[in-house]
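Proteins fold reproducibly. Take a tokenised chain:

. . .
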Amino acid sequence: MAALATRSTAAPGWKPGKVATTSSERARASGRAKSAASEVSLDSFEDFLLDKQKELCDALERVDGSGKTFCEDKWERGTKADGYGITRVLEGGEVFEKAAANVSIIRGKLTPERAAAMSSRGREEIDPKGGQEYEACALSLVFHPRSPMVPTFRADVRRFRVGGKAWYGGGADLTPYYLFDDDAKEFHEKYKATCDAYDANPDGGEVYAACKKWCDDYFYIPARKEHRGVGGVFFDDLENDKACDALGGARVRDAESFTRAIADEWLDSYLPIVDRRRESPYGGEQERWHHQRRGRYIEFNLLYDRGVRFGLDGGRIEAIMVSAPPRVRWDYDVQPESGSEEHRLVEVLRSPRAWA
């Protein structure tokens, strides 16, 4: 075993749970976003995405403590009235080797291919022939830590609107490289509490169970027979107080508020884990394993992720591949030693646990 090296990366002044910006800061951020998008009429959910992006980036800069900041890449789709986006990326930090948060707000007409795919998922309002006007907006993020003891965090929220109907999706999931059971348990318990608060069943539990299963099923790598991480929650095609087939009949009260609540939980579910693990010692062997497991992250994204595969067909390649970690290894036929922490992680990824 290689000698362990301690990475001291604590950011002065940061405390778990103290991550939200003030209301005045949020108001200023919203004003700047609206000014930047003056040709696009934004509603409150789109404003929420832009405010949340700034809140997240500000919080990560404080936690990282290196002085590194998020760059800001603004782009337009045709004219700004057709849609625009803001991609923000931090690279080379002390805690976060790479972190990205991307907002896109799009207006357009459904192509026959996309309309057919969406109508096949039970959206009766969508004409499979295409041609309908639509609005789509999303905030997606991924945080790749430098230390193998700190897990990668991925999350998103999104809304698609056409024909007077809106559908919501999103989630959050954790990809550890060394498994700390207490971290996974705490992470899942926080999202279970959020799901229970919006579960139409007064006894709760149905929405979380369905979203947890959906997350486990979605983030699976068939070629490896492994799940990408320890999961979290994932949902799509949610409507207000309407049973969703994909949720096994579970119903969410107020789909938009539920989606916002999931996003509001992101920092409080992840940053306490960062704070606990950021100074844990590690050496070259642990870092090598970290980069090997990042290879699984790339494999899932390129081979199986629906959003990435759709975006690669004519989308903005930099915004799509921004989720990729900066350093990755593909060593041949890596088999962790039986009884090792690496082996324990793989065994859990092959058979998901009930964490909450």
Q: What stands out?
A: The chain has one domain: 33-350. DSSP finds ten helices and nine strands in the chain. The CA atoms of residues 23 and 29 lie 10 Å apart.
